Amino acid sequence: MNRLVCGMVVDEELYMKYQDKKYRIGREEFALGTIEIVAASKDYDAYPYLKAQAQGVVEQVQGEIREYYAAKDGRKEYVTMKHDTFSEYIKDLQEIHAKSAPERRELKEKMDMAQKRWEENQREFKGDEHFLAREKVVYLDAQEAYKNNIRELQKRTQEEIQAVQAEYDRHLNDFYAANGNRIDESVVKLLKSGIRLTDAEIDNMVSQNKSNPTMLRLISDHCDANEISSQSARIYGALARKNGTEEREAFRTIAGMVEKAVSEDETTSKVWGTEHSHFERLSNQQIESMNAYSIQPAVNQEAASI
After folding, report:
1. pTM (2 d.p.)
2. How much is the pLDDT for 299?
3. How many domains does the chain have?
């Protein structure tokens, strides 16, 4: 089973390696688990130097883990990803929306105040041309600042979406790509043994590999090649070969909603950017839907409980 070291999912062997290590902070050496507590706990805010050292150790270990898996082509079944499940990347989009949408609303409110002030001045000081000329410049400056601020907000929002998408695509590509290190040799031996497997036995093989597209494809291909009729092997094999099409489309859909929330079009931004809007409902529905997908990464139980 995968384990956690400094918030990162690792295999059992690497986990045990770090359990045996000690690191110096202050004047003493401590086990990594203790150092993680010091780095994260608010109880140690009163000791900033000690906490900073602990955080440095955590960052060092995280870097070591990334380098370890990047260099170990033979262990790519344990590539460290940002999240355990694909729906968590949709939650990242929700967080972006939670920051960007209120900022868009604030910009609109500020512009509305400038508009209201200009309209009131036109009514109250319609005979004062010099005053109105100055106020018009103020109003036009507010309009220009409004447009520029929206463009800047759109740019930042798009950059944040692209950063999440890069991690998401990396996870999808790694998960669905055929990988020899994810082949279960015991299943392969059984398939090649010549034993006539029952439908129930093949269904069980499929069920045990729902988080392993490589094995689902292998089982499906074996059934096709040997003219074995198995509905589950056929269905799950086809899903594995789709290479995350549904997941990618889901991300694009929700990302598009985030972009609409910061649109320069007032009606569009209002529809998608207000509190408790369509975005909240639809993005939550998408998360529920993705959590029910037939094929998805196995959730690390230890990580899920934290």
Report:
1. 0.70
2. 63
3. 2
Distance of alpha carbon 80 from alpha carbon 247, whole angstroms: 19
**Same domain membership, residue 161 and residue 186:** yes
Same domain, residue pair 14 and 162: no
Tokens representing 265 are 């079009």
Provide the 3-class DSSP secondary structure of residue 198: coil
Residue pointed to by tokens 């990618």 = 248
Contacts of 156 (CB under 8 A, 6+ apart): 100
Query: How wide is the angle at C-alpha 273 spanned by C-alphas 271 and 275, nearest 5°?
Result: 100
Residue type, 140: L
What whole-number distance in Å separates Cα of residue 303 and Cα of residue 181? 23
Q: Which domain holds residue 148?
A: 86-306
Beta strands 3-5; 8-10: pairing state: antiparallel
Q: Are residues 151 and 283 in the same domain?
A: yes
pLDDT digits (tens, 9 = 90+) for 199-239: 899 999 999 999 899 999 999 999 998 888 889 999 999 99
What does the alpha-carbon distance between residue 67 and residue 263 come to, in Å, rounded to a whole number?
40
- Consecutive H or E run containing 76: none
Q: What is the pLDDT of residue 253?
A: 96
- For 4, list phi and psi in degrees, rounded to 5: -110, 135
Residue 179: strand pairing partners:
none
Extended beta strands in the chain, E state: 3-5, 8-10, 22-25, 28-31
- SS3 of 4, please? strand
Mean pLDDT by runs of 10 across the 306 residues of the chain is 73 83 86 90 86 90 76 51 89 95 95 93 88 92 94 95 93 89 87 88 91 93 89 94 93 96 94 88 94 81 36
For residues 146 and 275, state if they share a domain: yes
Structure tokens at 74: 């033979």
AA identity, residue 262? V
CB atoms within 10 A of CB 103: 18
The string of DSSP letters for 270-304 reads: HHHHSTT-HHHHHHHHHHHHHHT-SS-PPP-HHHH
